[in-house]
Amino acid sequence: MTDGQDEEARLRELMRLLRQADARAAEEDVPIGEFRIPRSRVPERHSQAIGTLTRTEVAVLRFLGWGRANADIATLLVISENTVRVHLNNMCRKLELDGVRELNALAGLLFHPLS
Length: 115
Known about the structure:
- This protein has a single domain (30-111), classed as Arc Repressor Mutant, subunit A (Orthogonal Bundle).
- The protein has a two-stranded antiparallel ribbon.
- The chain is mainly alpha-helical.
- The chain contains 5 helices and 2 strands, in the order αββαααα.
- Helix content is 61%, strand content 7%.
- The model has no long low-confidence stretch (mean pLDDT 88).
- Residues 46-111 form the HTH luxR-type domain.
């Protein structure tokens, strides 16, 4: 083999390894609504139940994870504050959480930026 062929073979192997890594990384994300969350952030006991959340519930959860208050969430989603509370209670029930404090902690784990 010539140097050019060695280089080409190394590049092909590198591309194969990168495709494998990309495929593994895609498998490690969990879809939550329209968002993809790293699997490491999703507690195992909630991984299936999170898939049952509606689009609006996921939006509420995301804003909650960013530290927004119920009134802010209502304004951002153009819904009433009471509707936000209904969504919070529905999520607590679906995710089998003891209350909004646990939901708030889970939302922070899922959606709070790392940086």
